[in-house]
Amino acid sequence: MNYSFEYMDIILLAMIAGFIFLRLRGILGKKTGFEGKISTQFEKEFEKIKISPKLINENFDVEAQKDFLKGAKIAYETIITDFSDSDNKLIASKPLLSKKIHDQFREALLDRENKGHFAEITFIGIKSAVIKTHKKIDNSLEVTVDFVSEIITCIKDKDKKIISGDSEKIKKVYDTWIFSKDMKSSNPNWLLIDTIT
């Protein structure tokens, strides 16, 4: 029995597999062992705002405010829409929340789940976002933002019957959120530390 053709087939297949592997690595990149966390659009925007004398002296100039508000708007939408998820894990918004706010949101989600209710939230958009105050407190910077947004929201029971809200009506929502950043921390994120509705 002649095995030479079988060996040639194996070598040929190995060459093809090697070629495909090299092509895939060139397209997809090489894993180095530490992949780190993928930056969200929110983080990229907020990373632009560095700790600087301008912020420390509370001279929050127009350019800094514009950069800040870009990230704040993304954070606002991310957190609002994440609150409608049924898994109660707040996965997308967790890096944006202080422990206090995360625990409050988580408690509200668990309460909703225990009642057999679930939320449907359609985020239409932000009408306006205005910096109300900005100040330095100890080693932290705090920025208070007034948001006006449009949202379609309703709460349904386990039978999908609406018990509050309206699944078709656009509602105008007014929120005041306070973001904070620890100037000594290497974490580039601003955290939502309080909400006033």
Automatic annotation (TrEMBL):
Pfam families: Tim44. The chain crosses the membrane at residues 6-24. Keywords: Membrane, Transmembrane, Transmembrane helix. It comes from the Bacteria. Coiled coil: none annotated. The keyword Transmembrane helix applies. NCBIfam families: Tim44_TimA_adap. This is Tim44-like domain-containing protein. The lineage of its organism: Bacteria, Pseudomonadati, Pseudomonadota, Alphaproteobacteria, Candidatus Pelagibacterales.
